[in-house]
Specification:
The structure holds two protein chains of two kinds.
Chain A (H helix, E strand, L loop, with lengths): L1 H6 L2 H29 L2 H9 L2 E6 L6 E2 L5 E13 L1 H5 L5 H8 L3 H10 L6 E7 L1 H9 L5 E10 L7 H4 L11 H5 L1 H4 L4 E7 L5 E9 L7 E2 L4 H18 L3 E8 L5 E7 L12 H4 L2 H4 L9 H11 L7 E3 L4 E3 L5 E3 L6 E3 H7 L2 H9 L3 H10 L26 H8 L8 H12 L3 E3 L11 E3 L3 H12 L19 E11 L2 E15 L6 E8 L8 H19 L7 H17 L20
Parallel strand pairs in A: 2-8
Antiparallel strand pairs in A: 1-6, 2-3, 3-4, 3-5, 6-7, 9-10, 9-19, 11-14, 12-13, 15-16, 17-18, 18-19
Helix pairs in contact in A: 11-21, 14-17, 14-20, 16-18
Chain B lengths: L2 H58 L2 H11 L16
The chains are: A alpha+beta, B mainly alpha.
């Protein structure tokens, strides 16, 4: 043991221990340094992940307004209540109370939660009134939360429904302009970093990662008042004539902007249940119709351009019918004898139009129609817009050439009709149709301004005392227009008693402001023509629209004359005064 | 104290004070951010309230309703042709 004792050295032992302990310490320091300096990310992330959260900042969809800034579609916040089933199921005894507060049957709610027992998220009820949702959350049931969402409201309901379309439950556009301008209207949700505690409550907002960009507002060219007026008149007329459907388009002639576009049947975009695609279609741009006699104006445009005709050229239409080589016979309503070319338009003679078309080449006739935008989309960008049907001229036989000249054998949308006539009123400049105010849409000169002016003068006779559309006249204004009545094709032929009544007009004729197309499908009863069904709608809507937009009258003399007549009548008939003569001449029968 | 020691002490002091300044700036940033998000929340609430009021106004001002109120409750009507008098200059 001596050896052992002699080898015993306190110093050495202490040294050994301190070396070992020092080594431990060094390892710890090295590890700490390694974590702090060399690879800190892993634990940093793990630490952050336990309390730092990145949460989205909700943004609202842009508002859609009319041309005067009146809101047409607004997103308003609603609350959606959701639950974490894992948490909630630990307190299953409170589910009945929850179901009652949410207004959902107890068994439905219980089933929904148990089906998703292994998930961490389930919507209990979406789009609730914020106050009710807050009350539900305040019940303090574990695992029940609410989140803010936006819902779209349409204060004008069915009047604007087709133009605006609608959004789905996630506030994305599904139809109409909501779909066409979805990217513009939708905001970019932002993101922020927050500190949350164990129970998911926000302790502190730490930092903004991305600011939320709210959606852009959209100002439409639609005028709410004209839109309502058109809708009201369309609905009244549909009921009066027992018609199945109809559309009205009103354009601003100098700019090509769409001022009103309404359709019947319509639907309430705020609660769409029970309305099928029949009601949801924007017929004014998606549905086509054979325009009938309103095409004659464009046929005459080609005739004037050919140089072979002037408005006074005599056209013999006797005896009121005309057999074609193919065996088909073109018929007029009655024998008009010899008409001037203006008279062909005034009386709407099919024989006259056929004889004029016979002097034109197929190509020229076709070119004129397609220059006015027929067979092309109107440029409005509306989802589901139809381009119409206009067959190539080399496919036209003699029968087709004749029928196309007066509006059968081709199909157009009401918007295309309004747009083509707006070009006539706009000195021959055709604008792209647009729904956006101040869009300054592209335009192209389609015919010589002189020809456009001639046609306007000719079309004024249609609403005059000799014309087919006397009921379209508006007191104090000169009105140019054209009626059309087409039999509807069905099952390979033309149906016996199904008609489309069309009227397209421009007012005031001296310096057109409005172009309006009216198409009514399946009017019932004895009066089914464009002059009897559609022209009065034009009268009512334009009467109001001219006043609303402060358009100065261009035919004051008519007013003076009517007044002088009224005064004379009231002097002649001693009191009680006889009712004054109606300003709008009482119409007789009207055809095509 | 040599120049070298003095510089060293100065740098240590500078490091410490800048570290404290960083903490302070961070604190100010959080305070400001909290104030900002509070104001943003107020702004959003006001915008939303404005939207709700616009919606309410638009609903009350709906043309169909105005027409009914004008026609039935206060007995207004459109002027007929008989009611319009045109003054000759």
């Amino acid at each position: 043991m001596k050896v052992q004792r002699s080898s015993y050295s306190l110093r050495k032992r202490l040294l050994a221990i301190s070396v070992v302990l020092g080594a431990f310490g060094l390892v710890l320091v090295a590890r700490a340094a390694h974590l702090q300096l060399i690879s800190p990310d892993f634990y940093q992330e793990q630490g952050d992940a336990r309390f730092l959260r990145e949460v989205p900042i909700a943004t609202s969809r842009g508002t859609i307004t009319d041309r005067n800034g009146e809101p047409l579609a607004i997103s308003s916040p609603v609350e959606s209540v959701w639950a974490n089933p894992k948490e909630l199921l630990q307190h299953a005894n409170r589910i009945p109370a929850l179901a009652e507060a949410l207004g959902i049957p107890n068994d439905v709610l219980a089933q929904r939660i148990s089906q998703r027992a292994d998930k961490e998220f389930v919507y209990l009820r979406r789009h609730m009134n914020p106050d009710i949702a807050q009350a539900v959350v305040d019940m303090g049931i574990p695992g029940v939360y609410s989140q803010r969402e936006f819902r779209r409201f349409y204060p004008h309901g069915e009047v604007m429904a087709h133009v605006l379309g609608f959004t789905n439950i996630d506030d994305r556009g599904q139809e109409g302009l909501e779909l066409a301008f979805d990217d513009w209207l939708t905001g970019k949700p932002g993101a922020q970093q927050i500190i949350r505690d164990r129970r998911g409550r926000t302790v502190e907002n730490v930092d903004l990662i991305r600011a939320a960009e709210p959606g852009h507002d959209l100002m439409l060219s639609i005028d709410r008042r004209i839109q309502y007026l058109a809708y009201r008149e369309l609905k009244t007329a549909l009921i009066e004539h027992g018609a199945s459907s109809g559309s009205i388009v009103v354009l601003d002639v100098p700019t090509g902007e769409i001022l009103a576009m309404v359709n019947q049947p319509s639907y309430n975009p705020n609660s769409r249940e029970g309305s099928g695609p029949e009601a949801q279609r924007n017929r004014a741009v998606t549905d086509v119709v054979e325009p009938g006699s309103v095409m004659k104006t464009l046929t005459l445009a080609a005739a004037l351009e050919s140089g072979k005709f002037t408005p006074e050229t005599p056209i013999p239409t006797a005896p009121g019918y005309m057999p074609l080589p193919g065996g088909y016979t073109v018929k007029d309503f009655r024998n008009y004898g010899t008409l001037t070319m203006t008279g062909v338009l005034t009386k709407s003679s099919n024989v006259g139009a056929t004889k004029i078309a016979n002097e034109l080449t197929n190509e020229h006739q076709y070119d004129m129609y397609q220059r006015f935008g027929l067979g092309h989309a109107s440029g409005s960008g509306f989802p589901g817009e139809s381009a119409g049907v206009l067959r190539a001229p080399n496919l036209w036989g003699p029968t087709e050439k004749a029928t196309i000249s007066y509006g059968y054998g081709l199909s157009v949308t009401p918007l295309q009709l309004a747009r083509a006539y707006a070009a006539l009123g706009n000195q021959g400049r055709l604008h792209e149709a647009t729904f956006v105010k101040g869009a300054d849409s592209a335009s192209v000169q389609v015919i010589d301004p002189a020809i456009a002016t001639q046609l306007m003068t000719m079309m004024e006779t249609v609403t005059g005392p000799e014309g087919t559309a006397r009921r379209a006249a508006v007191m104090g204004y000169r009105v140019a227009g054209k009626t059309g009545t087409s039999r509807k094709a069905s099952g390979g032929g033309y149906a016996a008693k199904r008609y489309a009544a069309v009227f397209v007009g421009l007012v005031p004729a001296s310096k057109p402001k409005f172009a309006m197309a009216v198409v009514i499908h399946d009017p019932q009863g004895l009066e089914y023509g464009g002059g009897a069904v559609s022209a009065p709608i034009f009268h009512h809507v334009m009467d109001g629209a001219l006043r609303l937009m402060d358009v100065p009258p261009d035919n004051i003399e008519q007013w003076f004359a009517a007044q002088a007549k009224k005064n004379a009548a009231s002097v002649a008939a001693a009191p009680p005064a006889a009712p004054a003569a109606p300003a709008v001449p009482v119409p007789v029968e009207s055809m095509q | 104290m040599s120049m070298r020691d003095f510089l060293f002490a100065l740098l240590v002091a500078a490091v410490l004070s800048s570290a404290i300044a960083v903490v302070h700036a961070r604190h100010l940033h959080r305070q400001a951010y909290i104030a900002l998000s509070g104001l943003q929340r107020d702004r959003d609430e006001l915008n939303i309230e404005f939207g709700r009021l616009q919606l309410e106004q638009a609903t009350w001002a709906e043309a169909n309703r105005i027409e009914q109120v004008a026609g039935t409750r206060i007995g207004m009507k459109y002027p007929t042709d008989d009611d319009i008098v045109v003054l000759q200059p």
